[in-house]
Structures are given as structure tokens and as C-alpha cells.
Amino acid sequence: MTTAGLPGTTPTRPPATAPPPVSLDWHDGWHFTGGGRCVLCNRHTVLRSHAGEDVHKVCAERWLARNPGKDRFVSDLPRGRRRGTA
């Protein structure tokens, strides 16, 4: 039973919406050169960000979703033609 709208009750807030999902593309093997503790959850990880931080990909994606507009973690450049080729 809901009490919203009854005298003497506090109106309830609608549920907070979850931040939109963020998906990083870390296809370069360089990301698998970690071997320390994740800077966000402090658990062991073998992944490394572009800035050299040991971090789980999912932790980085969650951080980005919670911090829109920040670029602490970024995706690799899209695969495709290499520079200098015709």
C-alpha cells in the first residue's frame, strides 16, 4: 500500500535512474601488461589503462558511467587502416 498523497506523509521520490552503460574497447594487447591492484576496487588485475593504471575494465566502465564527461579511461582507436598506407 502506498501512502503518497495522504495527509501527514512525505511524498516518495521516483527511483534514481542508472547511468547509461559505457563500453570501453581495449583490443590492444598492451592492456594485458598489468599485474597489480586495481586503483578502483583494490583487487588483483592483469589489465592496465592507457595512463598505465592497473584497473579492471569493468571498474573503469563503471567509473566512467558515474563520472560523465571525464576522460580518465579511454578506448583504443578503432581498428582499420594503419597510418602511412594507401
Characterization of the model:
- This protein is largely without helices or strands.
- It has a domain at 29-66.
- It is 12% helix and 5% strand.
- It contains 1 helix and 2 strands.
- It has one helix at residues 57-66; strands at 36-37, 44-45.
- The chain has a two-stranded antiparallel sheet.
- Strand 1 (36-37) and strand 2 (44-45) form a beta hairpin.
- The chain is elongated.
- The termini are far apart.
- The model has no long low-confidence stretch (mean pLDDT 80).
The end-to-end span amounts to 68 Å
User: From N to C, what is the helix and strand string?
Assistant: EEH
Note the beta-strand portion.
under 5%
The tally of strands reads 2
- Tally of DSSP helical segments: 1
Structural class: little secondary structure
Cα shape = elongated
Largest beta-sheet details = 2 strands, antiparallel
Largest sheet: spatial strand order: 1-2
In short:
The protein is low in regular secondary structure and 86 residues long. The chain has one helix spanning 57-66; strands at 36-37, 44-45.
Features:
2 strands, little secondary structure, elongated, 86 residues, two-stranded antiparallel ribbon
Helix-strand blueprint:
Elements: E1 36-37, E2 44-45, H1 57-66
Antiparallel strand pairs: 1-2
Biased composition (Pro residues): 12-22
Region (Disordered): 1-22
Biased composition (Low complexity): 1-11
